[in-house]
Amino acid sequence: MIDVFFQYDFLRQALLSGIMIGLAAPLLGVFLVVKRMSLVADALSHITLTGIAFHFLLASFFITLADIDPLYMGMAFALLGALLINQLRKVYSHFKELAIPIILSAGIGLGVVFISIADGFNTDLFAYLFGSVAAVGRTDFYTILVVTVIVALLLILFYKEWFFLSFDEEQAMVSGLPGKWLDVVFMLLVALVISAAMRIVGILLVSALMTLPVAAAMQWAKSFKQMFFYSAIFGEIAVLAGIIFGFYLDLAPGGVIVVVAVAILLFSLGVKKIGKKVPQPPISSLRKER
To answer: In the record, which residues are listed under signal peptide (predicted)?
Structure first.
C-alpha cells in the first residue's frame, strides 16, 4: 500500500516531509503546552495565511511574482507575527495572554481583506488551507528539511534552558539565563515549523498537530522526556495515516491527520478512564527530570 509513495517523486517528497513535520511540530508543542501557550500556534497559522493571501494579491498585480513560492511570504509573515507576539507579551506584562488574540484577530482580518481584493479563493489557496499531498514540491521538501534540522539542533543546544523557562520563568531569569533572547528564538522556531507544515497539514489545522499529540502523550508520560517520546510517536502516526489514507481516499490530508490525532487522544483518555493503569502526572511533577 505504501510502495506507491516511493514510485513517484511528489509522493515520496510528501511522505518524507510529513515524517519530518510529524516529528518537529509535536516536539515544539510540548514546550507550548507546558508554557500554557498552545493558542500561539493558532495565531501564527493565521498570520501565515495572511502572508499567503498577500502573495496572491501581489501576484494578481505583478505577474512575475506568480513564479515565486508563496511559502516564503507566509514564512516571513509568520516570523514577523512571532516577534510581535513576543513584544506584546512584554507590553501587557500582567496580561500576556492578550498578545495571542490580538495577533490572531489581526491575521484573520488582514487575510480576509487580502483574499477579497485578490478576487476570492482559488485552488492553490485551498491547498494551503487544508493541505495537499500533490502540493508538496521539491522546494517545499528542502525547506522542511532545513527547518527540521534547525529545530533539532536548537532543541539539543537549548533543551535545559527552555525546560527551566517553561516551568519557572522568573527563577530562570534570576539565575542569569538570557530568557528574553531564548523566548524570541523559540517563537521564531514555532513560526518556521507552522509555515513549513502548511503544505501537509494545512494552515487551519497545523496547530492541532502541535497540541493533540502532546495532549495524548500527557496521559502516558511519567516524565518530561517521555512526553517528547510519546508526542513524537503519536505525531508520526497521525501524519503517516493522514497522508496515506488521504491519498487513497482522495481526502485532504490535513483533515485526516487531525481526525487520527483526535482518535489517539480519545483512545488515551479511554485507557486512563477505564483501566486507570496510566495515571497522568501533574505538570509540576514532570519538572523533576531535566
So the answer is: none
Inter-residue contact 252 to 243 (CB < 8 Å): no
How far apart, in whole angstroms, are the C-alpha atoms of residue 257 and residue 38?
18
The total of structural domains in the chain comes to 1
Note the pLDDT of residue 190. Answer: 93
Q: Domain with 88 in it: what CATH number?
A: 1.10.3470.10
Average of per-residue pLDDT values in the chain = 84
CB atoms within 10 A of CB 90: 11
pTM of the model: 0.85
Whether 24 and 151 have beta carbons less than 8 Å apart is answered as yes
Q: Measured between alpha carbons, how far is 187 from 81 in angstroms, rounded to an integer? A: 9
253 within domain boundaries: no
Please give the helix or strand (H or E) that residue 45 lies within, else none.
helix 39-61
**What residue numbers bound the domain in which 45 lies?**
3-207
